[in-house]
Write a structure and sequence with these properties.
Chain lengths: 419, 166
């Protein structure tokens, strides 16, 4: 029996020629990632364990993005701990305020994720780099401390679900709609412990930003990782960011998949997830008109330049509705600067949106857009769990940037086709 | 062996309701554990007693990778969590920090809130003292049992002299 792309990457890093689903392996890591919330904890565990050295100071990345720029004294202390750890071990890929971005947009941009690599991160959305054909997955802080110390971790080889994309997306339909559709189809535990292997001719029509968004939300259906094959679009993206050589592995033709899901991209329409699960999906036309108080465009899911261009095309020469707060957060400094160069930021500000330095802030209910009792937000983020963005009675509707921007203009949950 | 009163929850209890991120601006467990489960059970923290057991439906611990979630549950005194299934990262984190977790769809379906339950983590036997029903959870693979026996991942690595070979 052959291996899937995920299994091939794991086998290579375990030094084995063949592995099977559900086998336990020890595998060498190419990158270990942490943020301000998880690195502080990992550094304490690292010290308590009596570890004295990191496995490779060039293969660890620490990004202060969740509460940074710090919102209060406690969060400032978390960042201090991460800074001290980075300094102590001369971590070369340490990104602080002014340099940092939302980690899962920043890591690919900095060339720290490449095809065939095995990446773990103390953040559940580490699965994002599957867009580039890497095996990447989220871990906790104890795993991170162990990974930082020894450069390897144990893995259970995931069985696979094949997601076969066909056709092309229509106007105003994006990677976010594709992934919400898939999560709605299989549920929030539909891929529990498994890998999502994205294949099919439809992939050719998905740009790199769509792929990042899709892989990013693999965790929202319980998947261990989500991975795309490497093609010309991947190579073109990597050409500017990754200098080192990388391995282009391909799935065996006789690889085993527990399930195959075929999605005709041309049949999809803008899709949203109503409170309080990402699987609670509806087509926009079924639910438009719901009242909202805030719109957030950003996050590791949808804060890339392509997302900002979509939002700007809708907000250009329009105004954010009177009673709506619209917050737009470019995911990295580079994206922010590019958005300035392209005139997108001017469009946002003229439309009456607030534009912020990169931060995860509102997505986790941390800062920069926390919701009050009973308020409802439309957000391009990835989770709409109870209390995620603020008060326990507040609500989040997950959407694409196009639906979010249209909602900001119309002043209620709205379709971009209704502008 | 753990004996305790049951706190019962449904499917998809996510790490945001176990430990809301708005309280994770500190890494002090005593501090963030004060809000454990608060978003779906306001009284959990005031009612839970040492040894009590959480029983829940499918996909317990879904969402964020925050290890604060199993730590908060453990800090509150919960002895073990039984669910019909666990989200992957939560499952791993619980084993790594030494919070016993057992998968048993039958137990999750039949045990009710406030039942008294006795759990033998080594055999996987779950006994509902209130009703007399007995359930069994699947045994952990030997490799994971070793981590649990060592008291978590770090101790397991240290006991093997720094190398975590299979």
């Amino acid at each position: 029996m052959g291996m899937t792309l995920s299994q091939k990457i794991l086998a290579k890093h375990a030094g084995k020629s063949h592995i099977m689903a559900n086998e336990l392996i020890e595998a060498k890591l190419d990158l270990v990632l942490g943020n301000d919330v998880t690195t502080a904890m990992a550094s304490t565990i690292f010290d308590e364990a009596g570890f004295t050295n990191v496995f490779d100071s060039n293969k660890i990345a620490i990004v202060l993005d969740h509460y940074a720029p710090c919102k209060d004294i406690n969060s400032a202390e978390l960042c201090v701990k991460s800074r001290l750890f980075a300094k102590r071990f001369s971590i070369s890929n340490f990104f602080d305020v002014g340099d940092m971005g939302i980690e899962h947009a920043l890591i690919p941009e900095k060339g720290l994720a490449a095809p065939g690599e095995l990446i773990v991160g103390a953040d559940s959305h580490t699965c994002t780099y599957g867009a580039l054909g890497a095996f990447s997955t989220g871990i906790g802080s104890t795993d991170a401390a162990a990974a930082i110390a020894q450069g390897s971790l144990w893995f259970k080889v995931p069985p696979a679900i094949k997601v076969n994309f066909q056709g092309k997306l229509n106007n105003h339909v994006s990677g976010k709609d594709v992934m919400l559709h898939l999560i709605g189809l299989i549920g929030v535990d539909g891929a529990l412990y498994k890998s999502l292997e994205f294949v099919g001719d439809g992939i050719k029509a998905l740009n790199i930003a769509d792929r990042f968004t899709i892989a990013n939300m693999a965790i929202e259906c319980g998947a261990k990782n989500g991975i795309f094959p490497i093609d010309d679009i991947t190579k073109e993206y990597l050409h500017d960011v990754v200098e080192r050589e990388y391995d282009i592995l391909v799935a065996d033709s006789d690889a085993e998949y527990e399930q195959e899901i075929v999605i005709d991209l041309s049949q999809l329409s803008p899709t949203v997830a109503l409170p309080h699960l990402p699987s609670n999906t509806k087509k926009i036309d079924e639910v438009k008109g719901l009242s909202i108080d805030q719109v957030v465009i950003g996050s590791c899911t949808n804060g890339r330049i392509e997302d900002l261009r979509v939002a700007a095309a809708i907000l250009k020469e329009r105004k954010v509705a009177h009673d709506i707060r619209c917050i737009i957060i470019p995911a990295t400094q580079k994206i922010y600067l590019q958005a300035i160069k392209e005139g997108l930021i001017e469009i946002f500000i003229k439309a009456g949106a607030a534009v912020s330095t990169p931060t995860c802030g509102p997505c986790i209910g941390g800062h920069m857009g926390v919701l009050a009792k009973g308020e409802r937000a439309v957000a391009t983020t990835n989770r709409n769990f109870v209390g995620r963005m603020g008060d326990v009675t507040s609500e989040i509707i997950l959407t694409s940037p196009a639906v979010a921007a249209a909602s900001a203009v119309i002043g209620e949950l709205a379709s971009p086709f209704d502008l | 062996m753990y004996t305790g009163k049951v706190f019962k929850y449904g499917d998809n209890v996510d790490t945001d309701v176990i430990t809301p991120a708005r309280y994770l601006n500190t890494s002090d467990p005593a501090e963030y554990s004060k809000h454990c489960m608060g978003d779906i059970d306001t009284y959990f923290v005031s009612k839970v007693e040492k040894g009590d057991i959480i029983v829940a439906g499918a996909n317990f611990g879904c969402g964020s990778s925050r290890e604060h979630a199993p730590i908060a549950i453990k800090t509150c005194g919960v002895s073990c969590v039984i669910a019909s299934s666990f989200a992957r990262i939560f499952y791993r984190n619980s084993i790594n920090i030494g919070l016993p977790i057992l998968e048993s769809p039958e137990a999750a379906e039949n045990i009710k809130a406030d039942d008294m339950v006795c759990v033998d983590v080594t055999t996987g036997e779950i006994k509902n003292i209130t009703t007399g029903q007995v359930f069994h959870s699947a045994a952990f693979p030997p490799f994971i049992s070793e981590i649990i026996k060592a008291g978590g991942l770090i101790n397991s690595i240290k006991s093997k002299g720094g190398e975590n070979e299979l």
